[in-house]
Fold:
Amino acid sequence: MPLTRKAYRAAILHSIADPAEVGIEASYEYFEDGLLVVENGRISALGHASELLPGLPAGVQVEHYPDALITPGFIDTHIHLPQTGMVGAYGEQLLDWLNTYTFPCESQFADPDHANEVADIFIKELLRNGTTTALVFGSVHPQSVNAFFAAAEKLDLRMIAGKVMMDRNAPDYLTDTAESGYQESKALIERWHGKGRLHYAVTPRFAPTSTPEQLTLAGQLLTEYPDLYMQTHISENLQEIQWVKELFPERKGYLDVYDHYQLLGERSVFAHGVHLCDDECARLAETGSAVAFCPTSNFFLGSGLFNLPMAEKHKLNVGLGTDVGGGTSFSLLQTLNEAYKVMQLQGARLSPFKSLYLATLGGARALRLEDKIGTLHPGTDADFLVLDYHATPLLSYRLKQANSIAETLFVLMTLGDDRTVLQTFAAGRQVHQR
Structure:
């Protein structure tokens, strides 16, 4: 295969560490006039344009963006494919919202044509918003995951997804059985896991909708295929937590249910965690599990405020999740806008560099993919974005007043949305152009 090489010149910024661990100044690299060199889908060089340009071989095309910022692609650690059609559904908190809106919407995925149509819309929406990797819930139907992976494979995206396992406390038209959930998941794993840049996640919806038998078999899949992911929900809503206590009276608490069935581990991601206690954070951290912080959803469904400082204290891996359709935007920039407010309401601050970390390297660490995505280090996949400083008249005017990259970054995260993403690249290929 011939060597393909291209260079991109712009202001360039990426996270290289968690600001909570190393301090803000040591947490990022910024090149005011930078150059990113891409070869065969990977990043081969990153640095100051003045230093790298003289050494570029003759004939290498250089794309120049004088009014833009290049960052790593965004990573969404919690989102639901089948809920695309019900974003912004009115008036309920979690459990009523599931019964009123979510389950009827998810039932449509029994139809493969519907699954294909939504998978196409969903992936376009992710890329339009600069999300290059997502951890995705399908529906209970295998065709939802087949449709998603087929669409992602065509674009060589790094994506993770799984079929929901749900064998109780849901409508009959939307349940599997412990055995069918296991067998269907296994077939999907054999077909898709490790194909191209695709990975499979064992996906029990949440403890109340799985029997002990189903949770046992979910744990068994993780034993049979050691590099699988596991995704589920935890401690999102107080009524939900009470329900888990009633369903599993023998367990110490919500997390202990998952722990008992051996669902904690280095590739396990628990969505929300709004009402986790200190001991649960410590246990999640000890097992290498991660939490997906989903601020737009937690506000929209009235679930509560995620305690990021407590997670940091325990060195718990935290990624960012849009949680569409409980969340109200595919945009991780808008999600960070809300995350900032979550911290403000708790008397804490969210620095723009911590925000960048959560949306990129933090998500990659939560998914154990930091050697492949989440930074712009040479050797990693060329998944990156071009963010336009003039995306809207207000953004353009506001950024003229910005005196530092910190201020520029914060304004992008406050006023930015899908319009800010000029181009999205995955494995070095342009997959979205505004």
Q: What stands out?
A: The longest strand covers residues 28-39.
